[in-house]
Design goal:
This protein is an alpha+beta fold. The chain is built from three helices and four strands, in the order αββαββα. The protein has a four-stranded antiparallel beta sheet, with helices on one face.
Length: 92
């Protein structure tokens, strides 16, 4: 099981455009069309499967909201921060 990050570690390591919401980190990725958002969701799902770390993702017209937490650790771990960085990489 992964170790929980401290509040200070989360604040220091939180990737650009992500915010903290309790025991999760969250970002809304914005797109010009539903199909663009769906394509991102598909790519994000592939990264999540590779990392064996599965976020909650909600697709709406023009956006995908991603929420990351490590359930078996009970909060935010390095696994969440790492996947958030990787998701930023496929979006930016």
């Amino acid at each position: 099981m992964a170790d929980l990050l401290t509040d200070e570690e989360i604040a220091e390591r939180l990737p650009s455009e992500w915010s903290r919401d309790g025991d999760e980190i969250v970002r809304v990725f914005e797109f010009d069309a539903y199909l663009d958002a769906s394509g991102f969701l598909s790519a994000a799902a592939g990264l999540a499967e590779d990392a064996w770390h599965h976020p909650e993702m909600t697709v709406r017209w023009g956006e995908v909201e991603v929420r990351l937490t490590t359930h078996d650790a009970g909060g935010i771990t390095e696994k969440d921060v790492d996947l958030a960085d990787r998701l930023n990489g496929i979006y930016d």
